[in-house]
Amino acid sequence: MPFALGQRWISDTESELGLGTVVQLEGRMVTLLFPATGENRIFSRNDAPLTRVIYNPGDKVKSHEGWTLEIQQLDEHDGLVCYHGTNAETGESVTLRETMLDHNIRFNKPQDRLFAGQLDRMDRFGVRYQAQRLRHHLATSELLGLQGPRVGLIPHQLWIASEVGQRHAPRVLLADEVGLGKTIEAGLIIHQQLMTGRAERVLILVPDTLRHQWLVEMLRRFNLRFAVFDEERCVEAYADHDNPFYSEQLVICSLDLLKQKRRLEQALDADWDLLVVDEAHHLEWAEDKPSRAYKIVDALAQVIPGVLLLTATPDQLGHESHFARLRLLDPNRFYDYQAFLKEEDDYRQVASAAEAIASGNKLPDDAIALLAELLAEKDIMPAVKLIQADNVDEEQQQQARDELLQQLLDRHGTGRVLFRNSRASVKGFPQRIFHAYPQQMPAQYQTAMRVALMMNRNLPTEAQARLVLTPEKLYQQFDEQSAAWWKFDPRVDWLIDFLKTHRSKKVLIITSQAATALSLEEALRTREGILTTVFHEGMSIIERDKAGAFFAQEEGGAQALICSEIGSEGRNFQFASQLVLFDLPLNPDLLEQRIGRLDRIGQQHDVHIHLPYIADCAQARLLDWYHQGLNAFEQTCPVGHILFKEFAQELLPLLSDADDEAMTQLLNHTRSRYKELKQAMEQGRDKLLELNSNGGDRAKALVWRLAEMDNDTQLIGSVIRLWDIIGIDQEDKGENTIILRPSEHMMFPSYPGLPEDGITVTFERNTALSRDDIALITQEHPLVQTGLDLITGSDTGTTCVALLKNKALPAGTLFLELIYIADASAPKSSQLFRYLPSTPIRVLLDKDGNDLATKVSYEQWDRQLSPVNRHIGSKLVNASQTLLHPLLAKGEQHAATTMNELLAQARQQMESQLHGELERLEALQTVNPNIRDEELDFLRQQMSELHGYLDNCQLRLDAIRLVLVSHV
What we know:
Layout: E1 8-11, E2 20-26, E3 29-34, E4 39-44, E5 50-52, E6 60-62, E7 68-77, E8 80-87, E9 93-97, H1 110-115, H2 122-140, H3 155-165, E10 171-174, H4 182-195, E11 202-206, H5 211-222, E12 227-229, H6 231-237, E13 250-254, H7 261-268, E14 274-277, H8 292-303, E15 306-310, H9 320-329, H10 337-346, H11 348-358, H12 365-374, H13 381-388, H14 394-410, E16 418-419, E17 432-439, H15 443-455, H16 461-468, H17 471-478, H18 490-501, E18 507-510, H19 514-528, E19 532-535, H20 541-552, E20 560-563, E21 578-581, H21 588-596, E22 607-614, H22 618-630, H23 640-656, H24 660-684, H25 687-694, H26 696-710, H27 713-726, E23 729-734, E24 737-741, E25 759-762, H28 765-770, E26 774-776, H29 782-792, E27 799-805, E28 814-823, E29 839-845, H30 858-863, E30 865-867, H31 870-925, H32 933-951, E31 954-966
Parallel strand pairs: 10-15, 10-16, 11-13, 11-14, 12-13, 14-15, 17-22, 18-20, 18-21, 19-20, 21-22, 25-26, 27-31
Antiparallel strand pairs: 1-2, 1-5, 2-3, 3-4, 6-7, 7-8, 8-9, 23-24, 24-25, 27-30, 28-29, 28-31
């Protein structure tokens, strides 16, 4: 290389050093000083990784004194370049020697990097373009926020999430029956609100016992890292902010924490976007005396725009406590209880008309007359004629039914603020089959129980009942050899025989105590060598994940997973169908949670529930009350908590002190009351509300589209290539899984979200659902988003030189491929990305400046190209400079034309959608007061702001590929 003192060069391997100056030439070595950083580097003259920096007429360069030169011409003397032109600030003619250039010059623009010889590999150019296209595809997806979570594609859950998650500041009550997935629905809505920028700060309020469950669900299913706040965490957070709630964006805490006046005031002042309240039926309310918990949520709901309330309590529409939940969502709308009851009566006609449409039969005359009355402002006859016709396409007929049904649903009283699905309306649940196995009480337990009852006479009745329900725990209190209980407990003998005769089955075993779970594992391992694993509250999240994964593993995995009570919270093991209850919880809801680990949508087999129990004691009597009184083993019992509250005073003493006559009487009363409540629930079912909540055919279409996205092999290939380019180590683990690990050769020093010890991932949803330790990779997953951000946020792939081997064209023929980005900067909350996200515009120019991009696809073009090394590529760029500058100007003109077309389309789409939605809601507001003024005002303001953002759309060059024809 011809070096001279004072010349300016840039390091190809350390461009961050800035512009270097040749300060010494000695033998075969050259020394450069990089004044911006004060670093010296010594290179061999023959193979130095350096690129000479020479600017061209038309370029603007900065002097070390800060003024800018617009270059008109340049000359070279003794190896040094002098630039002549005008001072951009003063307009006077000036000369600038290259030694006086600004030391901090960075070649960030693709054209600057190209002319400076900073060239990338051809595959990096391709990955960059694909990354920009993936970002654009995700931003424009109508399903943004729904594909990424690791959840099953359940129609009613996805429908509710889609319907609610796309609203501005949604305020709804999610009231699905137990087992239908309210937590998943809430998580999907939260995920969608965060991904679309509709929310940034989320507060989840839960009972203290559910904080861990929500933390795990949000992380494992939705990749959302919430922080759990208690008093200790609040004190620690003062180091970051005087209001501890500002130290995190996503927070889970219990209602008990906010019962402190100071903490409630801080929560009220924390500027949340979305409030989620689980177990909302615990918020007791009376018009003259609301509970403390209700008043806390009420205060928060008044200052937080979005509110989600979750409850499975089967209150009928019109019930006072149900009205109280709705009052939290919209106190202006639900202001008077009596007025609410009257209004609900008026909607019975709407429900009757909707059922007639949904039946699939022809409409009777009275139903048509009712529809004409209810939809007086619409011309319904064309739709009615299609429904009544005999020789009409079935799809057209269904479309007419859907149209009428949607118009009715929009007018339904609480259909916009309340979503409730029941097992009667959602299909796909397995049958429950209950097996009970009475065992004789060992003498050791008889003695321990007799002593315990004598010693604990003064304990509250409920505490005594809990003691006698776990005889092994009682025994451990009085015997030094406490670990020996499993050697004589007949339930353990039964369990061993059961597992030996069901070796091919996966068995979930649940017991109330962690110590009992550990002892059972020891018993099964030491007595029979049965391969099991345990799962209890003393384990870390990672340890629990590993235990769950070991249980889920088909070959070589554990036959049984033994859980403490925590195993009935938050984890689903529906790949198993055999459940052993080693004891019974003193709470019908907990029993339902235990069974619900297997009895869920997606379960492919009947669920067999096995209960070995000690006869003639508390376990047997509680079993009778659950089975004969509530039918809680073979059917879900949504009224269980109500009946337990009503009959606890009678039930609890009987568990400790047997009275056969009293027990028979209790069972009869319980059965009678259960039938009464169940009948009231069935009569209170709002069929129209269920139609609105399950989504029907629209929900099925949503599932189909998401399944298609899951099967996009092109996306899978793009993501794997992305990780290859970045340098992530990928090990095929089999069973549709890959282990990702950081490597020593990564392009970037770190990859946020990728653990040092690696992570197991899959692109297959069913595989991820069966294993808590495997991440589901979609285009929404943080590991994919991080990779796209790393590539597009750096210079990677912005410049490239390639050869086109084509003898049909003259050798040396030049093509210039340019990737521009049309970018209208706006806050994510504006929703501009729905109409014009950062959009890649591809321009492919021939030597005359004609754009061939529409005639030659990127994939077709890329397959014909061959890479060249950086040294040759740099020479080709230098030889082509006089042609490239005018082509760059033409390329920008072509891209600007395309951008203007995109802007026009974006404006049209935005106005069409938002004007249409505004007109629909304005019309609905006249017949359905659940449409809030805030929603209408938001749409009007949004349209105004979006016009302003679109006016400021900018075009920037993102990547350049120079292509030259070669015959070699």
